[in-house]
From TrEMBL:
This is Protein DA1-related 2-like isoform X1. InterPro entries: DA1-like, DA1-like_dom, UIM_dom, Znf_C2H2_type, Znf_LIM. Residues 133-193 form the LIM zinc-binding domain. Residues 423-446 are annotated as: Disordered.
Length: 499
């Protein structure tokens, strides 16, 4: 059937796509008909009342086309000629090479056919991408095929690569750092913090945040779980044992890292030169201690037993590492330096020693196995307790007594670690004794020993306990303002620090 009332005619070639294609003879007939029209000037138009038959859509349906003017007819004839040529060439191409599968083959066929007549030029529409796209990786134009659009640019799939490993990113999700894309795994490897103890990625908490612990001095970052999973901690520098380096067990519940072990003092005889050098330090500030006070290196258990035997005294909890003893006791001291075997000390020999009271101070006890600078700071602290008692300072509060003892410990450490950083906080007494020879020194200090000394200074300055921490800061402020001698005189007469 034909529809003469529609009037909406497409200007594009209408190629039949139904189930009954026209025969080859019919196509050839159409082609010859339009060739004759081309060279005959249109005198052989159909006479069916000024109307022509056209093929429509997907069915063998014909309709009448309204009569047109000469110009319209000429234009329509050109369009139909193009359509007939396309049909003919499509049939010929099918016989030669099979059905044309793309627009390029049809375009080439139309060009070749139109070269027959110079009076009917044909300019086919070029098949190009809708928008001009340039790859953000290789800076070349992106033609047909797959491409990516992200980060405000277009990319060939093979050009969108991870900034870390250089391989293409094929996953649906990626990570962005600055203006660089990463595989999520590569980004995590580079930017997600790892635990310094177990060397694994620090896990996120229930809120999805990365939560970890960090030592305030060493900046050792670690998983919160290591504070409760019995991971050994160095009793000297407080660093946790890593999975790659094992600490040394001292046999009394304490562990020691290898860096602290390098300068550790392990028996009483080894500690004697250091003890005498600190007594010289006091003498250089006109604070000589006349009495010969015994000094012993002891195990943790022996120190705790000695603390229990003391009637008076304030002790640093949870760990006390030194004691100025004033009662008569029998104490087991380290008689011979133990050996190291299998990450623990072995072959330790102790010797019981009965301490008798000859003055206000019976003995000074210090934990064995600590680095030289830490052992020296403990000795300087305990010797100040002895000096106060021998000089008649009575009934001092823990804040005052422990505070001024911490100041002397801090001063001695400074003279060892950074002798040029601070002049001796005294008025008319001696200058710094850091220039005095120390029989406990064995050549220059290593970098790690200096770093340990800085940590011990940090420990004293940032102690949070009321007596040792607040006491030190109050005593140190008074010494810096008034000098050590005037501060000690004020303590003697008032029991407190000058303000």
């Amino acid at each position: 059937m034909a529809s003469s009332d529609d009037g909406h005619l497409s200007s594009h070639p209408c190629i039949y796509v139904g189930h009954m294609p026209p025969s080859r003879n019919m196509r050839r007939s159409w082609f010859m008909k339009w060739i004759s029209k081309l060279f005959g000037g249109g005198s052989s138009r159909g006479a069916s009342n000024g109307r022509r038959l056209r093929i429509s859509g997907e069915e063998n349906t014909f309709w009448h086309e309204p009569a047109r003017s000469m110009d319209d007819q000429s234009k329509a004839e050109k369009e139909e000629l193009d359509r007939a040529i396309a049909l003919s060439l499509a049939e010929n191409g099918k016989r030669r090479n099979g059905q044309c599968d793309n627009d390029e083959d049809l375009d080439r066929a139309l060009r070749e056919s139109l070269s027959m007549s110079a009076s009917h030029p044909y300019n086919p529409v070029q098949c190009v991408p809708r928008d001009s796209r340039v790859c953000g990786g290789c800076n070349k134009e992106i033609g047909y095929g797959h491409y990516l659009s992200c980060m405000g640019a277009f990319w060939h799939p093979q050009c969108f690569r991870c900034h870390a490993c250089g391989l293409p990113i094929c996953e649906k999700e990626f990570s962005l750092s600055g203006s660089h894309p990463y595989h999520k795994s590569c980004h995590k490897e580079l930017h997600h913090p790892k635990c310094d103890v177990c060397h694994q990625f620090i896990p996120t908490n229930r809120s999805g945040l990365i939560e970890y612990r960090a030592h305030p001095f060493w900046r050792q970052n670690y998983c919160p779980s290591h504070e409760h999973d019995n991971t050994p901690r160095c009793c000297s520098c407080e660093r946790l044992e890593t999975r790659s380096v094992k600490y040394i067990s001292l046999g009394d519940g304490r562990s020691l890292c290898l860096e602290c072990l390098d300068s550790a003092i392990m028996d009483t005889g080894e500690c004697q030169p250091l003890y005498h050098s600190i007594r010289d330090y006091y003498e250089g500030m006109y604070m000589k201690i006349d009495q010969q006070i015994p000094m012993l290196l002891v195990e943790r258990q022996a120190l705790n037993e000695a603390i229990e035997g003391e009637k008076d005294g304030h002790h640093h909890m949870p760990e006390t590492r030194g004691l100025c003893l004033s009662e008569e006791q029998t104490v087991s001291s380290i008689h011979r330096k133990p050996k190291i075997g299998g990450n623990r000390v072995v072959d330790m020999r102790t010797h019981p020693q009965k301490l008798t009271r000859r003055c206000e101070v019976t003995a000074i006890l210090v934990l064995y196995g600590l680095p030289r600078l830490l052992t020296g700071s403990i000795l300087a602290h305990e010797l100040m307790h002895g000096w106060l008692r021998l000089k008649g300072y009575r009934n001092l509060s823990p804040v005052v007594e422990e505070g001024i003892c911490q100041v002397l410990s801090h001063m001695w450490l400074e003279s060892e670690v950074m002798p040029e950083s601070r002049s001796m906080p005294a008025t008319n007494i001696a200058s710094s004794s850091s220039s005095l020879p120390s029989s406990g020194k064995k050549g220059g200090k290593s970098d790690i020993e200096k770093r340990l000394g800085e940590f011990f200074l940090h420990q004293i300055a940032h102690d949070i306990s009321p007596a040792y921490g607040e006491g030190f800061r109050a005593a140190n402020a008074a010494v810096l303002k008034f000098g050590l001698r005037r501060t000690l005189d004020h303590i003697r007469f008032t029991g407190g620090f000058p303000e």
